[in-house]
Design brief:
By secondary structure, the protein is an alpha/beta fold. The chain has a single domain, classed as 3-Layer(aba) Sandwich (Rossmann fold), CATH 3.40.50.10210. Helices cover 48% and strands 9% of the residues. The protein has 15 helices and 6 strands. The protein has a 6-stranded parallel β-sheet with strand order 3-2-1-4-5-6, with helices on both faces. It is globular and about 70 Å long. The N terminus is likely disordered.
Length: 362
C-alpha cells in the first residue's frame, strides 16, 4: 500500500461515526405538491413518482435531476481464491482493470452511453499495475489474506480501504457529481461478500453461497464449505460490522462501504448495485443506520444471497433482469429510470397549464 493512502486512512479515525446528512423534507413536500398538479391520475406513474420524491428530498429541490452521475469501480484480489472458489483465475482481476482502462468492459460501455464519469480504483490487485488511464492507484496490499486461514486484513488495511472509498466520493463531489454508483471487480469476491453477509445476518453459508463467476452445483457446495470454515475461524467477526469486514471481507468491499458512508454524510444520492455492493451497503448501514436513507437499490441480482441482503436494506430494487456481473453494471442500467422519473416530474404540464379539468373534490 502507498504511504499516501495509509496516512489518509488514519488522519481522522472518527469519520466513520459521523451521521448521514438530513433529508430535505420541505423539498419533498414541494415535489409532492407539484406531483399533485400534473396531468395524470394520482399515483398513476407508480414507483417513478416515489422515486423522484426521494430524489427531491436527497437533492433538496422541487425538480431534481441526474445530469452528472459518477461511477467508481473498486478492484481488489482475494486470498481465498486459493481455495478454488471461482471459475476464473485470479489474474483476471488485474486483466479486467486494464480492460476498464481500455474501455472494453460492460461498465465502460454503459458509462459512455450514459455520459457518466467512470473512475477505477485499484485497492488491492495481487500484482502492482502499470499506470493506466482512468485508474487510481490506491493499492492497500497484494490482495487480502485467505479468510479460510487468516484474517482478510489488519487494522491498518481496513482503515486504508475504507478511506479509499471516502476519497473516491470526495473526488466525485469535486467533479460536481449529483449521484454515485459504486462497482466492484475481484475474483473470489462473492465468497468474501457471502462470508460478510453471513456474519452480519447470522445466516447459513448454504443459503447465501452462489455460482459467482459460474460455478456448478459441486463448486457452490465447496464454496459454502469454505465460507463455513472462515466463519468458524473468525467466530468473533459478527461482533461488529468493522470486524466482519476486516476478518472476512475484501479491500474493494470495504472501499465500497467507506464510499457509501461518505456519500451519505455529504448528502450524495447512492444508487446501489447488486450482491457485492449491497453487502457493502449493509455494512455501511450497520455502521451508521442513517446512511440507508441515501440509498436507492438498483436491481435484484441473480446471486441467491442477494434476496437476504436486500431484505435487510431499506427500499426495493428497481429492476429484476437476472443480472449478476458486478462492476456497477446493474446500477448503471437502472440510471435511465431515474432520469426518466426526473424528466416526467419536471416536464409534464400541470392541469392549469394544459387547461385540462382536474380531479373533482367531493
Amino acid at each position: 500500500m502507498t504511504d499516501r493512502v495509509r496516512a489518509s486512512g488514519n488522519d481522522d479515525p472518527g469519520w466513520l461515526d459521523a451521521p448521514a446528512a438530513a433529508l430535505d423534507g420541505a423539498a419533498r413536500a414541494a415535489g409532492e405538491a407539484r406531483q399533485a398538479g400534473l396531468t395524470k391520475p394520482p399515483g398513476s406513474l407508480g414507483r417513478l413518482e416515489r422515486l423522484v420524491l426521494d430524489l427531491c428530498a436527497m437533492q433538496g429541490r422541487e425538480r431534481p435531476a441526474v445530469d452528472r452521475p459518477a461511477i467508481v469501480v473498486f478492484a481488489g484480489d482475494h486470498g481465498v481464491a486459493a481455495e478454488g472458489v471461482s471459475a476464473f483465475p485470479q489474474a483476471v482481476t488485474g486483466e479486467m482493470v486494464r480492460n476498464f482502462a481500455r474501455g472494453g468492459a460492460a461498465i465502460s460501455v454503459l458509462a459512455r452511453s450514459l455520459g457518466a464519469r467512470l473512475e477505477v480504483v485499484n485497492v488491492g490487485t495481487v500484482a502492482a499495475l502499470e499506470v493506466l488511464p482512468g485508474v487510481i492507484d490506491a493499492r492497500v496490499g497484494p490482495g487480502t489474506g485467505n479468510i479460510a486461514r487468516e484474517p482478510a486484513m489488519d487494522a491498518g488495511g481496513i482503515a486504508a480501504a475504507l478511506a479509499a472509498g471516502r476519497e473516491a466520493v470526495d473526488r466525485a463531489l469535486a467533479h460536481g457529481a449529483d449521484l454515485f454508483i459504486g462497482g466492484d471487480m475481484g475474483i473470489a469476491n462473492t465468497t468474501a461478500a457471502s462470508a460478510v453477509a453471513c456474519a452480519l445476518l447470522d445466516a447459513d453459508p448454504a443459503d447465501l453461497a452462489g455460482p459467482g463467476t459460474g460455478l456448478d452445483a459441486a463448486g457452490v457446495r465447496r464454496k459454502a464449505g469454505v465460507i463455513g470454515r472462515a466463519l468458524h475461524r473468525h467466530a468473533g467477526a459478527a461482533s461488529s460490522p468493522l470486524e466482519a469486514l476486516r476478518c472476512l471481507g475484501g479491500f474493494e468491499i470495504a472501499a465500497l462501504t467507506g464510499a457509501y458512508l461518505r456519500g451519505a454524510q455529504c448528502g450524495l444520492p447512492l444508487l446501489v448495485d447488486g450482491f457485492i455492493s449491497s453487502v457493502a451497503a449493509l455494512a455501511a448501514c450497520r455502521l451508521q443506520a442513517s446512511a440507508g436513507s441515501w440509498m436507492l437499490l438498483a436491481h435484484r441480482s441473480a446471486e441467491p444471497g442477494h434476496a437476504r441482503v436486500v431484505a435487510a436494506l431499506p427500499g426495493e430494487p428497481l429492476l429484476d433482469l437476472g443480472m449478476r456481473l458486478g462492476e456497477g453494471s446493474g446500477a448503471a442500467t437502472a440510471l435511465p429510470l431515474l432520469r426518466l422519473a426526473c424528466a416526467l416530474h419536471a416536464g409534464m404540464a400541470t392541469f392549469e397549464e394544459a387547461a385540462v379539468s382536474g380531479r373533482l373534490h367531493e
